[in-house]
Design a protein that fits this description.
about 325 residues; mainly alpha; Cytochrome Bc1 Complex, Chain D, domain 2; 2 domains; 12 helices; about 45% helix; binds heme C; transmembrane; Cyt_c-like_dom_sf; oxidoreductase
């Protein structure tokens, strides 16, 4: 009698453990298969709504991050997106007025910071792209950048690479890898490059205060700069012409963001100014129709204010 009861008990225990293991496996499988953990950039309340409303997922963004740093995308496999867009320089190319693409060909413009892109309406200095996806195609195909091709170069390389093929299969199933899949994962990575932990943001949220000099800089900025570099993103939504001749806009450009300007020297869209001071002294003469250069004291105050837009967590964090 006693023996049967014991057997019954241990039988139950075995069944319970099996059920337990089964549940753990099921949850684990679900977790592994879940490719839709969305990242919603937790922007602070002083930020407006984004233009790009598509949500990135953690899984796509982390694959995009790997590709962003991989020379596999370029024709001669020497450079990656990150060669020209380095995190420590807020994703600009530090110290280079123009950058070096595939086969050491030089770009025509200075590599810009990549930040808060979901809040931009137009991309590139001349605003020629209106969707984030177009910026990826541009970088891949441009002979002065990656000098590459999706169907003939990148996709065959990804297929031969077992780690990448496995990752693409997990995200998109067993079908053949498509150009749009690569654009999607890279775009999702770009969607995660958001910066709003600067002193300026702390002040906007009532958690810090500007110094006297920063306040002076803010006053000049409000009067002379914010019509084009619109807070809190500090870029312009449309094109701005430096001059109008007849009914033609001359040299129409997007005003770039001033966030993290401390890290992105040299300055100007061709990188002509190694130091911020030299650009600021003459900048409004070129762009805002002013007839006087800024004084040294005004430039110092402006610079102090602009440095409150530096976000050290952005240049060092390792999310995704
Ligand atoms: C050889 C250097 C180089 C490489 C490699 C490169 N870029 Fe760029 N990138 C630039 C330059 C230069 C510009 C500015 C072009 C212009 O304004 O016409 C730019 C502009 C951009 C912009 C527009 C930013 C804005 O605010 O308008 C994005 C986004 C971007 N690149 C993403 C990428 C991605 C993603 C890759 C890799 C797939 C990449 N870049 C590879 C040099 C590079
Ligand atoms: C009429 C519009 C306009 C006004 C006003 C204006 N800017 Fe600009 N700013 C631009 C444009 C367009 C560019 C890009 C072209 C260039 O670099 O020359 C630019 C570029 C810059 C850059 C270089 C950014 C980089 O990443 O290289 C800085 C810094 C800057 N502006 C600061 C200021 C400050 C400070 C003021 C006010 C004193 C100001 N701007 C007023 C339109 C404007």
């Amino acid at each position: 009698m006693n023996g049967t009861r014991k057997t019954n008990k241990s039988g139950k225990l075995v069944i319970m453990s099996l059920i337990g293991v089964f549940i753990v496996l099921l949850v684990g499988r679900q977790f592994l298969l879940d490719q839709t953990t969305e990242i919603d950039p937790p922007a602070p309340s002083h930020f407006p709504n984004r233009f790009d409303r598509d949500r990135a997922t953690v899984q796509r963004a982390s694959l995009g991050k790997m590709l962003f740093h991989d020379p596999l995308l370029s024709l001669h496999q020497q450079i990656s997106c990150a060669s020209c867009h380095q995190q420590a320089a807020a994703y600009a190319d530090p110290g280079k007025s123009t950058s070096t693409g595939d086969l050491s060909v030089k770009t025509e413009r200075n590599s810009p910071t990549l930040v808060n892109l979901a809040w931009k309406k137009q991309f590139f200095a001349d605003g020629r792209a209106t969707k984030l996806e177009e910026t990826i195609e541009n970088a891949v195909l441009d002979p002065k950048e990656l000098n590459s091709d999706f169907d003939c170069i990148i996709i065959p390389r990804i297929r031969k690479n077992s780690l990448y093929s496995q990752k693409f299969r997990r995200l998109f199933g067993n079908r053949t890898i498509h150009k749009d899949d690569i654009i999607l994962v890279l775009t999702d990575y770009l969607r995660t490059l958001n910066s709003f932990h600067a002193k300026y943001d702390e002040v906007m949220q009532g958690r810090a205060q500007f110094t006297t000099q920063e306040k002076e800089g803010l006053e000049i900025f409000t009067a002379a700069c914010q019509s084009c570099h619109v807070p809190p993103l500090f870029h312009s939504q449309g094109l701005i012409a430096s001059c109008r001749s007849g009914n033609q806009d001359i040299n129409a450009l997007v005003a770039p963001t001033l966030r993290n300007i401390e890290f992105t020297s040299p300055y100007g869209y061709t990188g002509a100014y190694p130091r911020l001071d030299s650009l600021l002294i003459v900048h409004e003469i070129q762009w805002a129709g002013s007839s006087y250069p800024r004084t040294v004291k005004e430039v110092a105050a402006l610079k102090a204010f602009l440095y409150t837009l530096s976000d050290h967590s952005f240049t060092s964090n390792t999310a995704y």
